[in-house]
Amino acid sequence: MKIQIKYINGIRFRRFIMTSAQRIEQNKAHLNDINVFPVADGDTGTNLAITMNNIVEDVQDFRQSSFDLTMQQIAKSALKGARGNSGAILAQFFQGLAEATRGMSRLTTVAFSQAALKAARQAHMAIAEPCEGTIITVMRDWAHYISQMAHKTPDFVELFKQSLHKAKISLLKTPEKLAILKEAGVVDAGAEGFVNLLEGIVDFIEFGRLRVMKQEISRPHIGLQKQSFLQSLEKSKFRFCTECLFEGDNLDRNLIKERLSRLGDSQVIAGSKEQLKIHIHTDNPDLVFSEISSFGTILETKIDDMWEQTGKVSGKIGLQKIALVADSTCDLPEELIEKYNIKIVPIAVQVNEKSFLDRIDISTKEVVDFLETPGCHVTTSQPPYQYFEDIYQELGEENETIISIHLPGKLSGTYQAACTAGKQNKYRDKIKVIDAKTSTVGLGMIVVQAARLIESGIPLNQLIERLNHHIRNSKLFVSIPTLKYLIRSGRLDKIKGFIGSLINLKPVISLNQDGEFEEAAKVVGLRRLWDKTLELACQFAAGKENPHFAIAHIEDIDLAKWYEKELKNRFPQAEIFISEGSPALSVHIGRGGAAIAIMGG
Length: 601
Prior knowledge:
By secondary structure, the chain is an alpha+beta fold. It has 26 helices and 19 strands. Among the domains are: 8-231, Alpha Horseshoe (Serine Threonine Protein Phosphatase 5, Tetratricopeptide repeat), CATH 1.25.40.340; 474-599, Hypothetical Protein Tm841, Chain: A,domain 3 (2-Layer Sandwich), CATH 3.30.1180.10. The strands form five sheets. Strands 16-15-14-19-17-18 form a six-stranded mixed β-sheet, with helices on both faces. Helix 1 runs parallel beside helix 4 (67-81), helix 5 packs across helix 6 and helix 6 packs antiparallel against helix 7 (135-149).
């Protein structure tokens, strides 16, 4: 007897989506392989899988039979978990389905087809510069076909099977509509991901489960043709794939689109009037976040280096088996972060009632200005747990090991948050969380050393052993020009601080072997403070073989260069780098503060 489905409700559609997520996960590597548009960064499959898996995690125990309630939950989860260009477009498609089916507990084929048409239109409108031959083309062609067919059949089995066939035909035509696909010899990766979604639905309807994947669409020669194409492919116009989730009241998409248009391309704005997910390719993520923060509250952000990703895909950069993570207090120059592909988790900086992300949507200068503004209360707090969860999830898919190095557990909850996220992550066996026992450029030197050890290719156990050796043979000295910020942040007893300020005491702070603050010296006057900090650094370095240095400063590059010059005079062979201190560091030491880190061989 032929099976017929005359309606779909929330329970049935939830099962459809869960099977579709499995299909996309099954086809993820292939989608990554054929990803050449809008940027050949090899992550379309990963992004779609993460978007769909986020939905699954939120709805797997959702038991509402109402299509309306289930669809709202799916749309909300998709928006929160949307990754990449295709993920954001898919999230807007689900948002359109949710809006078009409000108040409907079950849908006929006609009602579903009308909602699908609206969803496809909304997905198209979410893109600042829509391009034919992509996922939106296949969405639209599929939606138009089912809107015609729905009036001829009340059966969802027939509707989905026939429309899947039409979607595959539309997919095969994408190279005819987009020259870059034809040149590479591939179909559009996002569009094939949407077809995979439909395949999952049809599999569930026919078999109640997912079949073994068969590559029915792409042909065997495609990989060779794409590899040849990628070797001659230039970098994308803009460097960073930037995303953020934010909320506000009556958000104006058109105004936001206009404001962001000057900052990049590949812009997608998905969501509702209360919550939006922004995707844009840009060279200035901080300007994007600053612009967006004027419209509402930023909840989550993500930045990927597309030049690096494109290099990996085209074979110009070898895939590392060990990934490196640090928090934003490591105070490394940007060029070192980029060179060693270090993933940074931002500390939170709180200014009165508003929260910012260290180095992403607030700068050191801005923090210093806030500190010197009467009535401003500035503090720091550990990164949100979700930031660690997301970055471990992303890196765990492509690496055998993740080394995550952070400021001392004695000073902050950051290290503990990293440990907790690592233990609860599905890639927990890959994650090694290390307490650096130091901060600012001291932490930065440990992280760079870890990167160089990874580059050397030594076994993991030896790498960890060497890293612990460097931690034990490192020291940090921080010159504090004023005690008031240490008092404000709660790092210094108020009575001691008050007495010290009366006699113009200037402390030099260090950290002991347990990662706790200790007083290294205290002097009267700024000049003596600078001299004493330098003296302590030189004394420690003198007892080490082949010492090298790092210097951080808060809005005082001249002081940092003076330290560098004096250290070069005493240790002419030493490697030295200078970095601006992070906004998080400036909260505690203020303008004119500086730090010297020393690492022995």
